[in-house]
Amino acid sequence: MKPETIQYVNNQLIRATDRLKHYTHVGNWAHPTRHGFIRIEKYIKIFLEGQRESRWIIIPGLRGVGKTTFLAQLFLRFKARVKKDHILYVSVDDIVTAGITLNEVLFAYEKVLGQTFESLSEPVILLIDEVQQDPKWAAVLKSMYDRARNVFVVCTGSSAVQLQTNADVARRGIFEKLYPLSFGEYQMLKNNKFPQPALKQGIKSALYDSATAQEVYTRLLLLEKSVNTQWSRFDPKDVNEFLSTGTLPFTLKAQDLTIYERIGRLIDRMITNDIPQLGKFDVQTLGVIKKLLFIMADSNDGFSINKASIILGVDRLTLTAVLDALEKAEIVIRVAPHGSSVVAVRKPSKYLFMSPAIRMSLLSITGLDETFLNRRGKLLEDVAALHFYREFVANGAGGITFDSALGGADFILQIANKKQIAIEIGMGDKEFGQVKNTMDKVRCDYGLIICASDSVNLSEKDNIVKIPHKYFLLM
Fold first, then answer.
1. pTM higher than 0.90 for the full model?
2. Which of 50, 130, 317, 467 shows its CA 20 to 30 Å from the CA of 71?
3. Nearest to 448 by CA among 219, 440, 462
């Protein structure tokens, strides 16, 4: 065994508390925990009480969404509840850079503990960050899971598809995805302002569980007082910061001049470390991915694979494989044109960013103020795509397409094969025309317009309701 591996484990055990506090605290103030933390905390508590059935939690998520902070909060929460040295945090990014494998680290940890994992009589908690950086991670952790009933593992990774496609992992692990921040989470982490209980669910139910636009309208009016009360605690100017950078937690404490530079480095790491694991791409192809992302960020009226292929000098087949990898890495969200499979193949898809901060970072070199003012509508569309992906697509509860015809709606949301809703979204005030155009062609239960309207408005004859941003952003 390499002496440096033992040294690495010992250093982690000694320094982890101070190191991880940098992720969880500003001075003496601790960041609030995000949605999902309570569920994972409950699994670990049950494990410490003696239940051994659910011992492996997997947290997929885009780089920069706060996975390390999540693990750091778990470390600090449970450090005092287990025996000394029986909780270990490992960054696989770090150990791979140092030429060490995950298996070597775990073997060294057994040496430090003085016993094998299967012989442990006291519980151990392992927190493993960016696990996919070790190509053998799944086999290593599966083997340990099967033989070590007193070890609880929480691991994170940057590709949900890559983590979930291993049959052994999917059968044993519990998945808890972590996404870029919603506006409510942004307020919680940035300003320590918490949402009203059940308001998010109330708005969501009104928008998506109603039978008609009239019912949406009636139910939203009942929530108007609560929505206004919530917004009285917020600064409306926060919306611009949220759209430009605020969906990525690490930007909330970064200096303005360095935010886009840091996001740029994050994009480079995604391209260098994550994308190669999702496809067999040569150096030349990897070298054009950032240019491809810029083209996508600057494509206001749709993205053409054929045009991008010509501009980048990459054949269409390779470019399609790259787009598939970007989607699997959850850097972008693909929205297919509405219609049959023939339509979906013939007409180009729309690609939106999992975080609008990535779009803004890519466009910042063209002039920040002008870019932001011109792109706010597209940034809001990114936020909407993330919302639909998180609430419906990722959990199999629905899907999204768009009306590719000129003057069509931005989204058509299908919910559990039972309901379709045409949705238009924009920063300014909007008329009913675009949604009506789509509803004239596509059978929809009703239509929604998310815009800068001062109040909820109903077009009963068109079966469409217009909703101010302030309702949508609270979901």
1. yes
2. 50
3. 462
